């Protein structure tokens, strides 16, 4: 199974939104095979708690305007790891330290990476 077209469209919007707020080290993983509830994980790093919150808020705003409201949000108050669930797309916005500690890329290493750079270049 591969990620749905809707999940890939949401990924493009979310990646551009994260990039516009200074999100770093964007990694997208196709988790459609092992997970029944999501197609894509987007992992983003912010350089401070305020930056993590700003990135998450921008992603929620852009996807909401695009017709994909947030189904669930966790961690917004602390700004260390914010999880945004849009259904087919789940976004993890991490502070640098939490991203290293939890290592989601290692946990999901068997899932194929999806190219993010072309999505960002398309918005230029």
TrEMBL record:
Coiled coil start-end: none
GO molecular function: ribosomal large subunit binding
InterPro entries: Iojap/RsfS/C7orf30, NT_sf
The entry's keywords: Cytoplasm, Repressor, Translation regulation
Subcellular compartments: Cytoplasm
One family name in Pfam for this protein: RsfS
Transmembrane segments: none
GO cellular component: cytoplasm
One of the protein's GO biological processes: cytosolic ribosome assembly
Listed HAMAP family: Iojap_RsfS
Assembly notes: Interacts with ribosomal protein uL14 (rplN).
Protein family membership: Belongs to the Iojap/RsfS family.
Function: Functions as a ribosomal silencing factor. Interacts with ribosomal protein uL14 (rplN), blocking formation of intersubunit bridge B8. Prevents association of the 30S and 50S ribosomal subunits and the formation of functional ribosomes, thus repressing translation.
Protein name as annotated: Ribosomal silencing factor RsfS
